[in-house]
Amino acid sequence: MRAINGIGPDIILTHPHEGGHPDHDAVAYGVQQAVPQLPWSVPVWEFTSYHREGGVTVHGKFLSNGDAPLRLELTEAQRELKRRMLDRFVSQLNMVAEFPLDADSFRLAPAYDFSHPPHTCPRGYELEAWGMPASL
Fold first, then answer.
1. Which of 13, 28, 30, 84 is a good FRET partner for 134, with 20 to 30 A between their CA atoms?
2. pTM of this prediction?
3. Does residue 43 contact residue 108 with C-beta atoms inside 8 Å?
């Protein structure tokens, strides 16, 4: 919360709580815990990430647990810039190569109940050898 207070943003852009990666879910949780304690009102928007759905990893789409997203179509120049930026993420090239380049989607963050998993199918981090169950 100190970091948010220090910056004083007009908007916060964060990960959704979708069970794709534990760090993403932790950031979503931290933001939703901090924002109500701020001395001003700030909207929280989410960008797409990845999650498991129907036995496959889905990139660049939200779970159907919130408002319809705002989809921004990218121009050819914006697509090329996005590709160049993603190519700089060398430690995650296999993962970021799966994200669509044609558009980006955003939505207002829903009021998550973090005492429950984001969905019933196995979360991404449950399928990895990280030893991280969705619940204890």
1. 13
2. 0.86
3. yes
Whether 81 is in a domain gets the answer no
Cβ-based neighbours of 6, under 8 Å, separated by 6 or more: none
What total number of domains does the chain contain? 1
Which residue ranges of the chain lie beneath pLDDT 50? 136
Is residue 51 classed as helix, strand or coil in its secondary structure? strand
- Residue 103: count other Cβ atoms within 10 Å of its Cβ: 15
> 98 lies in a domain?
no
**Nearest to 65, CA basis, from 12, 121, 103:** 121
32-46 pLDDT, tens digit each: 999 999 999 999 999
Range of the domain at 50: 2-74+103-127
